[in-house]
Amino acid sequence: MIVDTPLLELNGITKRFPGVLANDDVYFDVAVGEIHALLGENGAGKSTLMKVLHGLYRPDQGEVRLHGRSSGITTPADAIEAGVAMVHQHFMLVPTLTVAENVALGLAPSGFILDTSEVAERIRDLSSRYGLHVDPSAHVWQLAVGERQRVEIVKALYRDCRLLVLDEPTAVLTPIEVEELFVILRTMAADGVGLIFISHKLGEVLSLADRITVMRDGRVTGETTPSETNKAELADMMVGREVQLAPDRPGFEPGEVRLAVKDLRVAGDRGVDAVRGCNFEVRSGELLGIAGVSGNGQRELAEAIAGLRPVVDGDIKIDGAEVTGRHPSEVRAAGLAYVPEERMRDGVVGEFSVAENLILVAHDSEPFSRRGILRLGKIVERCRELVERFDVKTPTLETTTATLSGGNIQKLILARELSGQPKVLLAAQPTRGVDIGAAEYIHRRLIEERSAGNAILVISEDLDEVLALSDRVAVMFEGRIVAVMDVAEATVERVGLLMAGSGILAEVP
Amino acid sequence: MNEFFTVASLVFVVGSGIRLATPFLLAGLGETIGQRSGVLNLGVDGVMLLGAFGAYWTILETRSPIAGILVGIAVGLVMGLIYGVITVSLRAEQGISGIGIFLFGLGISDLLFQKKVGTPMPIRGFGDLHLPLLADIPKVGEMFFQHSVLVYIAFLLVPVVAFFLNHTTFGLNVRAVGENPAAADSLGVSVLRVRYTTILLANGLAGLAGAVLAAELGIFQQNLTNGQGFIAIALVYFGAWRPIGVMGGALLFGMVSATVLQWKTLGLVSGAASSLTAMAPAVLTILALVAISRTVGQPAALTRPFDRGQ
Known about the structure:
Chain A is of the alpha/beta class. Helix content of chain A is about 30%, strand content about 25%.
């Protein structure tokens, strides 16, 4: 029977890069109408495998077969022709163009003159059929993240895709949007589209997928179905050892207020205020988690607290001392440690060595320098200790920082920030793009600091992370803290609704 | 100063302003197309110089202005091909490559001029084309409808380029490639092909701009353009990457230049003051750029080479 021929077969794909075996004899297939999840850490080989599928990489061994025939895909254009589409994690959209223009882009020109009215008409058809609400005439830059993702899916549907790859599609969505997306994906599967769902969120994979394949170090380490497995088992398959998904949180004994933010307003990049009146406190011995969808003012809030962004109004106190609008060095002196969201841009100097990055803050004070001269002996001594204590995996202290993995860079930043004995630790997206093993370590470390009497503020778009770490949970929406609650009261549903803006009826913080 | 505020002066300033604006407009339109696809070419002035010399020498030898103009365009296309190989295929840094192109054009055009011509000899370009009826309107005709055919072509290109960018499928590709080449590539648009095409168009127009300059002035000399290509690049920013805006900038620049000329003719400025007023157009451009300084409309991928593997 024809139906028995898988839509896609990747047969024994092997791909080598200098010094790395990115894919090692990988077998992977998708049936017509199947949702097949591909699970794995960063560097497990998922992206390489997808690039082989799209013809961007030529495999050293193995074969890509579509509908039982060799795929012959060598360019993105071939992939589209063959009905293979991808929704990238970083959207492939042109913000200055309209939705219809983005969809029309690259289609075999129906003529020299651009006419998007027909395109718009078909977009409306697809929208109503799949419940994908998009306005064809809107400019993409005006759209929220969830809408942009729908545009990506419309692009794929418009090209009659038979196989759709979704790379971490839920990373930017609220729990409600995730549910909506899943409905759309299930409808597509019911229409016979094969879906490859790449993710590291175990819960989502279990609820959506028909089948789950786990990769680690370039190899397939397991294939299973949601009914046969659970989160813990999947995590173990990904990491290769037993993983503690949620850290233990010893008793909660809050002390005095260490960080107080009052009526804070902060300007955004586009002139409009991104933070519009934020109020919260973090006490010693407490971890406050701020949940929220990306782009609701979290980044600006963090930067304002760290002194990196001018404050329009309101004030920020660290351990009772006013630090509003102070220079970052003064904020640090007042006791703030800051793990920034963009670790490569704001957290480390990529070209510097591990040692140089580790002492970046303390380098101009005793004992690491005297009268402007660096004292290398002392520096090396301290760095050895920090690398050891914080489990930073680096070949040497002289290694260029940018060559380390995201998890190790994050541990390096954490080591540096905590070595200054801060009173308040502000960690923005502490485990974004970090592998599970390192995330487990970072989580444990944050809890240890909190239990040792530090005040910890974690800002994260990963709701599971916020719920696992926090003593209290705050939700940020459109520049405001719309609710603060004890973690015991914070269910995924309740916080999810607040993240999506249904906080009007919710409690006043 | 009163002798300046006369109808005759106005007619001269507007008429000459339009004429002087033409090379800026042509080069600026070309640069607009290139930049909308994400390619900055700082070498415009060098390409204009080569185009100017090519046209000048051709007209000198053949006495055919049309042949001269075609050679100017051809020289631009060749330079565009070179620039495309350097910046698109080899992914060299655009700023530095453009400066290289400028210095190359500046040097080679002068060398060829010294070797092939030596002493400056005047050429005859296109005569003024008096548009029927319109040219006979008093004053207005003199200002707007008694120009060389090249002037009309340049201004007609403004709506043509605007239409090309905004209402054609290739224009959509150009805009997409300038904003997010990876997105265009993922949909099967060849970034390479789009950028080569826009670079060829941009440089062809720069070559034409140089040819127009030589044909209108009827002469060639070392550094004939005197930095006009750089002004043309500034006008693209001034015009916020839109053909109509570039035209506005080119006209403003042309009129100010014409005003300065008129002051000199009337003897209103002399000596050191004359040299200083000669700077007026450039100073004005800088002030205008600062005043309306904006990057709204700037293609997001401007100056960024595209490499699919990244």
